[in-house]
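Class prep. Sample record?

___
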Amino acid sequence: MRKLFLASLLALSTQQALAQNCNVEFLGDLQLDNKVITITTDDHRKVVIDANQQLWVDDKEVVLTKQNQRLVEDYYAGFYHVAPQVADITRDALDLAGVAINEVFVELLGSDNDLVEETSLKLSELGEQVHANFYAKDGEIRFKSGDFDHGDFPSAQWEAEFEHAVEQLVEKSIGKIMLAVGAELMFGNGDFDAFEAKMENFGDDIEQRVESRANLLEERAEALCYGIISIDRIETKMEKNISELANFDVLQVNKNKNLM
């Protein structure tokens, strides 16, 4: 049984694998909302790039050369590009883990069991929460640096939410699960070894199918990392070339050598 639940969480381990290659941290607070990027630095400066991609520092408009204006536009476009990727990878990782969990319950309880339907509903609600976190009601993308929890992305918040939902479902239906296991043993003449072997084989099958999809997710996450590295490099150029942004080092990416 343990192996089945490990297989279901394999998709979420994509986050941990990625974190080893691409650790993202924000020194300060960054938000993208209503097409405006607002940054509050650790030294309490307020930096804004508005919907017209105009730079403001402490409520004062900054006049830029064409070259520096391009840097600001690229910085803005970078976050606008990676934000939906963060949302999609988070949602797809949760969906994939949910598929595995759902198959476990179907195997144990049958496809017409109330727990299976409730599991699908809970996971659907969690997916909607992810969507609402990254998209406003009008469909505009939004992003906040808090989505990167202690350097991990997507935030471990969603993994915790998923695990909590599964724990609640299991606790609520532990009686049904035990009855199903008991019935399986009874009709199998009490052969626990045969039952264990059957569940191990089922777990292996799920793990193989989940692992292939999780690998694709990890590839997407690695591509996302390259995008964030690119934003970090643009930020460094802005810091060097725009005097109002001296010591402006908000985004930090600790890169594994394999990604350099």
Notes: The CA atoms of residues 12 and 159 lie 7 Å apart. The chain has six helices and eight strands. The chain has a mean pLDDT of 78.
